[in-house]
Design a protein that fits this description.
- The chain is an alpha+beta fold and 292 residues long.
- It has a single domain, classed as Deoxyribonuclease I, Chain A (4-Layer Sandwich), CATH 3.60.10.10.
- Helices cover 22% and strands 28% of the residues.
- The chain contains 6 helices and 12 strands.
- Strands 3-4-2-1-12-11 form a 6-stranded mixed β-sheet, with no helix packed on it.
- A hairpin with a 3-residue loop joins strand 6 and strand 7.
- The longest helix is centred in the middle third of the chain and has 21 residues.
- The two termini are 30 Å apart.
- The relative contact order is 0.15.
- The N terminus is likely disordered.
Length: 292
């Protein structure tokens, strides 16, 4: 039997052993997930040369079955070209679309969902903008973008349904910024309680909830508990300079059980000189889905 190109990788990376061996979904499905803030602002804002970084990022993203990307703003064509032949979809557009302001500020969510899995397994992908934001000319200027979330539903091997959520919350450290994050989390929670009830779920993104800040941590923990999520433990390597703002969570569903196999900082996200490709760590998790 001749398999499509996505099967041409080591056996340890093959997604669905049951499909390859002809044994059906009872074998379960092993898959990898990446969550990464790409620091894709225009070069004069990012303070470096994203056009040099993004081809490398695109090549690395191809290593993962599902990639949840944030701050993919100004250099998306470069990323898409380097990540081919992945299926890649962007998130919600700018709140300024269709207005004269779009000539100056027309950034959408900056979210991109990418997968190397068969297109037929992606049965639904929805995007939505958060109404709440804090900061137009200050407070990290979040309102100039239009942050939101992506919600994808994949049926691995044609039978095992797993939902994936990608999001980026309001930045900044003021009370107003935290209030915006609270409203955004409430919106996302309500959506998932309605649209992903009982589903196996993987949620990742730049939540801008500092693990070292008690108020941010309380917001995070309440959201996680309400949805029954478990931390994969994916975080930057000890000693890394970044605060913990990025997270990867998972939960089992009523018909699909998720088993965590491995998680941490994704290797290789550095340039030729060993410098990080972003101002955030790349997080990964490897999981196994099996029918209950």
């Amino acid at each position: 039997m001749k398999f499509p190109k996505f099967w041409a990788r080591p056996l340890s990376e093959v997604l669905v052993l049951g499909v390859v061996l002809g044994a059906g979904a009872a074998w379960g499905a092993e898959f990898s997930v990446l969550s990464y803030n790409t620091h894709g602002l225009p070069g004069w804002v990012a303070g470096d040369d994203p056009e040099r970084r993004f081809p490398r990022i695109g090549a690395l993203v191809q290593r993962y079955d599902v990639a949840l990307l944030q701050e993919d703003f100004a250099h998306h064509p470069v990323l898409r070209g380097a990540a081919a032949p992945l299926l890649m979809e962007r998130g919600n557009p700018s709140r300024f679309r269709g207005s004269a302001l779009c000539l100056l500020f027309c950034e959408g969510s900056g979210l991109s969902f990418a997968t190397r899995l068969p297109r037929a397994w992606l049965v639904d992908l929805a995007s939505a903008a958060y109404e709440a934001c804090a900061g137009w000319l200050g407070g990290a200027n979040d309102c100039l973008a239009t942050k939101g979330f992506q919600h994808a539903r994949l049926v691995l091997g044609g039978t095992l349904e797993v939902h994936f959520v990608n999001t980026h919350l309001d930045a900044g450290r003021s009370a107003e910024d935290r209030a915006a994050r609270r409203v955004q989390l409430e919106r996302l929670r309500a959506h998932l309680e309605r649209e992903a009830a009982g589903a196996a779920l993987v949620l990742g993104g730049d939540l801008n909830l500092d693990a070292a800040d008690p108020e941010d941590a309380a917001l995070r923990d309440a959201f996680v508990a309400a949805l029954g999520l478990a931390d994969t433990g994916a975080k930057a390597t000890p000693g890394a300079p970044w605060p913990q703002l990025d997270y990867l969570y998972q939960r089992s569903g009523s018909t699909v059980r998720l088993e965590l196999l491995d998680a941490g900082e994704a290797p290789g996200f550095v340039d030729g000189a060993g410098a990080p490709l972003s101002d955030h760590p790349a997080l990964f998790a490897r999981l196994r889905a099996a029918p209950l």
